[in-house]
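[agent] plan:
  1. take the single chain provided in the ticket
  2. run structure prediction with default settings
  3. attach structure tokens to the ticket
  4. add a short note for the reviewer (M.T.)
[agent] executing step 1
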Amino acid sequence: EHGDPRGTFVRVQIALAKLPEYDRRRPDLARQERDLLAVHGDRWAAPLRGLATGPVFRRGFVDEAKVTARQFLTSPDAVFAAGPLRHLHLLDVGGHVGAVFASPWLARLTGLTVFAQHLGDPLARAVAESPHLGGLRVLHLGRNRIGDGGVERLAGSPTLAAVEDLDLSENEVGEAGGYVLGGCPRLARLKRLELAGNAVGPLGAGAVAA
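[agent] step 2 finished; step 3 output follows
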């Protein structure tokens, strides 16, 4: 209302979020979004410089970004002060699994991605046992060598009961994992389940479908 282009950007992104995918108004709004980001995006993302990478804007502000586990543990206050972050992609988790998932700063998140860290079932167990992830709606753990035991931990975690989008693609989930997912009442809120690249087989897939 005072001529700041950020206000226009906020309105454009909110309008886009409300419109159906094929609404004829989307192309013009998407063009405005691209043009505003091209001119102002670097300045708007500047507070995250040196703290996080890959900023994603939603509703006019950086909502999602990539941050190393070390940075997350060392300066979480600075990371979250830089923007209203709700979805983090944690990188280089490695030997920091225990410390990361014990951090109360995770309670600020509605989305969490740990991709291609190859940490296996210990990662699934740490996620399932963290008391700070009750706000998650999105959980992406693709390509981490998580097996049936890890799936059982995730499915049985009361903390993750609100998750609506679960990505377990390219892991080591087998038929037993499919049965666990198919029979878990805590996953009743799911709107999206990604199991590509797992050998759940026809029986495991049938259990999920049922």
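[agent] step 4 note for reviewer: Strands lie at 53-58, 61-68, 87-91, 111-113, 138-140, 165-167, 192-194.
[agent] ticket updated
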